[in-house]
Specification:
Bound molecules: NADP nicotinamide-adenine-dinucleotide phosphate
Strand content: 25-35%
CATH superfamily of the largest domain: Medium-chain alcohol dehydrogenases, catalytic domain
Distance between the termini: 10 Å
CATH topology of the largest domain: Quinone Oxidoreductase, Chain A, domain 1
Order of helices and strands: EEEHEEEEEHEHEHEHEHEHEHEHE
Number of strands: 16
Radius of gyration: 20 Å
Number of domains: 2
Length: 331
Amino acid sequence: MKAAFINETGPPSVIQYGDLPTPEPSENQVLVKVGAVAVNPVDTYIRNGANYWELPVPFVIGCDLAGTIEKVGSGATRFKVGQRVWGTNQGLMQRQGTFAEYCAVDEDWLYATPDNVSDEDVAACSLVGVTAHLGLFKENANLQSGESIFIHGGSGGVGSMVLQMAKIAGAKVITTAGSDEKVELCKSLGADTVVNYKTEDVSEAVAKFAPDGVNVVWETLREPDFETLVPYLAERGRLILMAGRDARPAFPVGPFYVKGCSLHGFVMFKATPDELRACAEDINRWLSEGKLKSRIGTVMPLSEAAAAHALQEENTLNQVGSLAGKIVLKP
Ligand SMILES: NC(=O)c1ccc[n+]([C@@H]2O[C@H](COP(=O)([O-])OP(=O)(O)OC[C@H]3O[C@@H](n4cnc5c(N)ncnc54)[C@H](OP(=O)(O)O)[C@@H]3O)[C@@H](O)[C@H]2O)c1
């Protein structure tokens, strides 16, 4: 089968596109014929040598996939041959990734794709969708209907999912975007107020939007500025962090604890299969009902995986702003 893989870490040019043996599903696995995959920033950190865990060699890159079941392992019971599925959390914690014509995946990491949702759309929502869901509900932000949320980066992969899910939950949303076009896009996704962070004063806009502060602040940037963010929080506000492994910013302790605020950090890949399945069930329903929309910036052939990584990196690390939506690749 054709696959995009690496034998060593490094820049996007270490990605090879070529033949690897088609994997055999083990007992609890299924073999998925891949219809679409999506790129995430974490794919580029791992390829670049982030060294979170040891990588298999060769290592097939990528976390997200959508496709059709081709074979079922002897002990796998959730799916049948021919069924359409999607999933994420592959290519992480020493698992092989998804950027290939076929992937052998533990059935617990897969979910049935709704009939009226394409592989491209569901792949584009997968890692970013479960991330938004894990952070917004239950023990993290525990967002309630009628509350307010400030999303720093509502035009991004995760941010645009957080924005839409917060609206589905009945919250009021203020968010940032880096161009007039992206401001319009966030409005079309339902944001109540969108601030162009390049041309407008964000703090002024938040103060106008929520004079007593917002209930939730969701930071998607890798260098959080707590001196700016903490004043945005209302009494008992929740601050969500999910990016910036190397960030060591100063933190204004006094203004934070006297408001009874709480700080929540998480990574999606440490969620259990059951926790992720609960997210996937909502995502499936919302996609199928048209309440949640995937945002695809560009679709490329899998053979262009190296170019796709360069484009993602340019945007997430160098903040060039040339990407509006997810990069989807097709084998
Ligand atoms: N913890 C987890 O489980 C988890 C899961 C997924 C992702 N992440 C991490 O979360 C981060 C975001 O991921 P993503 O996929 O959403 O990335 P992304 O699609 O590249 O989005 C980046 C966002 O940041 C905005 N931005 C860039 N520079 C900015 C600035 N100076 N001021 C304000 N906004 C700015 C961009 O806005 P414009 O494009 O409009 O300028 C865009 O909305 C990454 O570091 C990723 O590794 C963590």
